[in-house]
Amino acid sequence: MNRIDTTMDDMANTKFLTLYSSLIKQFSASTEFTHTEVVCLLIIYYKFVQINGPTAKQMKKKQMYNLFLVLFRIYDMTLIERILLNITADVIYIGPEAWMKLFSVFLSKNLETRMQFAYKVYTTSSSGVLNRETVGMAINNFFVGEDDDEVKELQAPNVPFKISE
Cβ contacts of residue 38 below 8 Å, gap of 6+? Predict the structure, then answer.
């Protein structure tokens, strides 16, 4: 048997393929990722799931918080929660669909896709406009420890942002 991941034994490789073969086909067809990239992303997901024990079926949301902190260096817990709300409604687990949705946005070459996701994360009202307060809070959280004058300059415009949906 050809192992898809040499760090897993034959039984783990077989279990992975049994659990994820239909999702691999689905994500290969519905995302910008190649077949190999989908397999790699799902292997990483599978390994996070396995940390939760032999009967675990999904990744815990707490693991995703840690991934944001370590890998993406996003330290704002409110922002992490807003991102997670845009990829899943589950309050405890991250399913493989949510995992792939996150990486489809974060690794997308399509700027419009990334902007639409950011807009959904940062808008908290149904007005369809990012107001000065929302942008100001985002800038403050983004530039923690940076030059105060630069942050104030970025906050200066009093023009609401509007992105078409």
Answer: 24, 27, 28, 31, 100
